[in-house]
Amino acid sequence: MSNNFRHPEILEIARKEGKVTVEGLAEHFGVTLQTIRRDLSDLAEAGRLERVHGGAVPTSGTINIGYEDRRQLNAEAKIAIARACAARIPNGISLFLNIGTSTEAVARELLQHKDLMVVTNNMNVANILAGNPDCEVIVTGGHLRRSDGGLIGTLATETIRKFKFDLAVIGCSALDVDGDLLDFDIQEISVSQEILNQSRKTYLVSDHTKFARSAPARITSLASIDVFFTDRPIPADLARACGSWNTEVVCTG
C-alpha cells in the first residue's frame, strides 16, 4: 500500500482516537516501523500531525493534546528555548511562570538562580523550583486541573491581582500567523490575561509547532509581548509586524 493511501487513513485514526502509535500503525497496515515513521514525518512536515514519543497526535481542534505527549513534543527545542530565556532572567526579581511544558522547562533552568520570588499557577513548576533553596515559591491556589497540574479559576486570578511582577514568562497552546496567542481553556485565558496586566515585562516561550496548531480562545497579541523565544525563524510578515510592535524575537535554532 502506497503512502498516498495510508496517509488519509492515518489521519482518520488519529482524529478518532486522539493519537496514533508507530507500532500500532505498522501492525494495522502490515508494513515496517521505518515505513510508518516516514509516513508520520511526512504528515508532520505537512502540518497534519504533530510527532510525539512513539507516534503522533492531531495538530488542531478544540481539545488540547495530553500533558505527557505535550511534554515530549519537541523536547530538545524546548530546552534550548528555556536556556535562552533563563539567561535573560536576572537574579533578585519577582517572576511569574504560568501553565505549560515550556514554562516548566524554564523552571528547570532556574535551579541555580538566586534570590528569586516565583509565583505560579503550575503545580509542576512549584515542584521543580522546590529544589532551589534560593527561590521563594508562591502558589496561587485555584481549581486544580488534574490533566496538567494547572490552577485556574477565580481564586487564581484574585491571587495574581495582589502582585506586581517584574517579569512574567508565559506559554500558549497555539500561535496564529497574525501574531495572536491562543489557548483551549476559557478559564485559563482570564488567568493569563491577568498575569499580563500585573507584569512589568513579559516573555513568551513557544516552539515552532505552535504555528501548526489551532485553538479557539485568544489570550493576547505578540504586540503585548516584550521578548518571544522560539526555535525557528518566524514567517516574514509576522517578523516585520514584531519589529513594528517592538517585540524582540530570539530564535535558538
Model description:
- The protein has 253 residues and is α/β, with parallel strands linked by helices.
- The protein has two domains: 3-59, Winged helix-like DNA-binding domain superfamily/Winged helix DNA-binding domain (Arc Repressor Mutant, subunit A); 73-251, Rossmann fold, CATH 3.40.50.1360.
- The chain is 39% helix and 23% strand.
- The chain has ten helices and 15 strands.
- The chain has helices at residues 3-17, 22-29, 33-45, 67-72, 75-87, 101-108, 123-129, 154-160, 186-197, 236-245; strands at 20-21, 49-52, 55-58, 94-97, 116-120, 135-139, 143-145, 150-152, 167-170, 174-175, 180-183, 202-205, 217-221, 227-230, 248-251.
- Strands 6-5-4-9-12-14-15 form a seven-stranded parallel β-sheet, sandwiched between helices. The chain has a three-stranded antiparallel β-sheet with strand order 1-3-2.
- Helix 5 packs across helix 6, helix 6 (101-108) runs parallel beside helix 7 (123-129) and helix 8 runs parallel beside helix 9 (186-197).
- It is globular and about 55 Å long.
The share of residues in helices is 25-40%
Average pLDDT, all residues: 90
Structural class: alpha/beta
Spatial strand sequence of the major β-sheet: 6-5-4-9-12-14-15
CATH top level label of the largest domain: Alpha Beta
What is the radius of gyration? 19 Å
Uncertain segments: none
Q: How much of the sequence is in beta strands? A: 15-25%
| CATH architecture tag of the largest domain | 3-Layer(aba) Sandwich
Main β-sheet description: 7 strands, parallel
CATH topology of the largest domain: Rossmann fold
Count the E strands: 15
Domains (count): 2
Order of helices and strands: HEHHEEHHEHEHEEEHEEEHEEEHE
Question: What gross morphology would you assign?
Answer: globular
**Tally the helices: what do you get?**
10
| End-to-end Cα distance | 36 Å
